[in-house]
Amino acid sequence: MFNKFEDYVRQPTCKQKLEIYSDGNNDYASVLLEHFNKDSLCYGQKIKSKDGVKIIPAIKRKVYGNPKYDEIDTNNNECFNSILRGKLRKLMRKSKCHAKAKYELNMALFFFQFYWNFMHELHKNVTPAILEKQSTKVWSWGNFLHAKLTFVN
Fold first, then answer.
1. Model pTM?
2. Pairwise CA distance, residues 139 & 141, whole Å
3. Alpha-carbon distance 3 to 133, whole Å?
4. Sheet strands (E) in 4-153
5. What are the angstrom distances between the C-alpha of 23 and each of 8, 57, 69, 93, 114?
6. Domain boundaries along the sequence of the chain
7. Which stretches of the chain are DSSP H helices?
């Protein structure tokens, strides 16, 4: 998965660091070093835990670089994961239509990503793709289905 991530993210430098925040899973720390230089990372973790039923306040820790403690948060990630699970039934753990093949899941994610970035309006006539200057218009399914393909995987 990080191989794909590396394709979408500009290679960070010591001056333009890659900022990443995650939960307490320590696998991220080692995987990040396989793909990026430690000096170009600004990585923090927000670790949540419970004592029985009682939720203990989250612990924030700096892993690489010097992230600001108040910026170490996973709420956006958790919110987006919730949106994905709500929109793509293939991601539900207990669903009749769970993904049976990796290809099916990848295609479902591709369509959802396109929808979210190019069609989903954050504000009137503004999508994430327009904010990132990847598009100049809000796309419709008609635009998508009739677009001229420039490459095929």
1. 0.62
2. 7
3. 24
4. 18-22, 41-51, 54-64
5. 21, 13, 14, 20, 26
6. 1-73, 90-153
7. 2-8, 27-35, 75-87, 102-114, 128-131, 141-145
pLDDT tens for the chain, 153 residues long, are: 556 666 777 788 888 888 888 888 888 888 888 888 899 999 999 988 877 777 788 889 999 999 888 888 888 778 777 888 777 766 665 656 666 677 877 888 888 888 889 999 988 999 989 988 888 999 998 888 887 766 555
Identify whether the C-beta of residue 117 lies closer than 8 Å to the C-beta of residue 127.
yes
d(CA 123, CA 103): 33
DSSP character for 124?
T
Rounded Cα distance, 13 and 42, in Å: 11
The two three-digit tokens of residue 7, written as one number: 């394709």
